[in-house]
Design brief:
Helices cover 45% and strands 14% of the residues. The protein is of the alpha/beta class. β1, α1 (19-30) and β2 (34-39) form a beta-alpha-beta unit. Belongs to the short-chain dehydrogenases/reductases (SDR) family. InterPro entries: KR_dom, NAD(P)-bd_dom_sf, SDR_fam. One of its GO terms (molecular function) is oxidoreductase activity, acting on the CH-OH group of donors, NAD or NADP as acceptor.
């Protein structure tokens, strides 16, 4: 149990079939919310849907495609009967300083966030909340993933602007910036064998001596979405076990 009560709340998690998105969706469902998720891959989407319980909704969606994003959020709002909480979690993981890297990062990390938010807000009422998933990469330069780091920094700034714009409607907007998160099938688990030097270097930079888990990020998303954070808006909370301290 998460310790939160979201009974009666309607939650949309854009990018909710794996990792942080999956753990967030399941945590909301276990706390009593009705949840909708989307992702590109049907298999993981179906597997996560099965864990969300009665009343949950899922739809295959390419979050880099404007029409698909808006259609998904509209459908989720209709199925759920409205939207109370939106979590913008998807990433294109366009890390390289190339046309392809920038296009993937901008289309998914940035434009999917703005498009999903723009579509969801008319279905939200005062007391609603949006949480944008950024990264600690957005707080520092990166030679390895320059495009990814830049768009995550953009999301941190956009979260502030979005919070200011929606405050008069009673909608709070916050962000979460995870550090390196490890889960089955995720990029860091893969790097443990494919890039052990990189993995061990990152592991050594974390004071607690381990990578984070998706559940630890999900807990902060639920807090920011809850009434306990009712006077918190425009902030991005770092969840990294002290990784930025190194």
């Amino acid at each position: 149990m998460s310790g939160f009560d979201f009974t009666g709340k309607r939650v949309v998690v854009a990018g909710g079939s794996r990792g942080i998105g999956r753990s967030t969706a399941i945590a909301f469902a276990r706390a009593g919310a009705r949840v909708s998720i989307c992702a590109r891959s049907q298999g993981p989407l179906d597997a996560t849907l099965a864990e969300l319980g009665a009343g949950a909704h899922a739809k295959a969606c390419d979050l880099g495609d404007k029409a698909q994003v808006t259609a998904y959020v509209e459908e989720a709002a209709q199925v759920l009967g409205g939207i109370d909480i939106l979590v913008n979690n998807a990433s294109g993981f366009g890390s390289t300083d190339t046309e392809e890297g920038w296009e993937a990062s901008l289309n998914v990390d940035v434009l999917a966030t703005t498009r999903a938010s723009r579509t969801a807000v008319p279905h939200m009422k005062a007391g609603g909340a949006i949480v944008n998933i950024s990264s600690i990469s957005g707080y520092r330069s990166s030679l390895r993933t320059p495009a990814y780091a830049a768009v995550k920094a953009l999301l941190i700034n956009f979260t502030q602007s979005q919070a200011a714009a929606l405050a008069k409607q009673g909608i709070r907007v916050n962000g979460v910036a995870p550090g390196s998160i490890e889960f089955p099938g995720g990029s860091w688990e893969q790097r443990k064998t494919s890039q052990p030097e990189l993995y061990n270097r990152v592991l050594g930079s974390i004071p607690f001596g381990r990578l984070g888990t998706p559940e630890e990020v999900a807990n902060v998303v639920l807090f920011l979405s809850s009434d306990l954070a009712g006077w918190v808006t425009g902030h991005t909370v770092v969840v990294d076990g002290g990784q930025l301290l190194g």
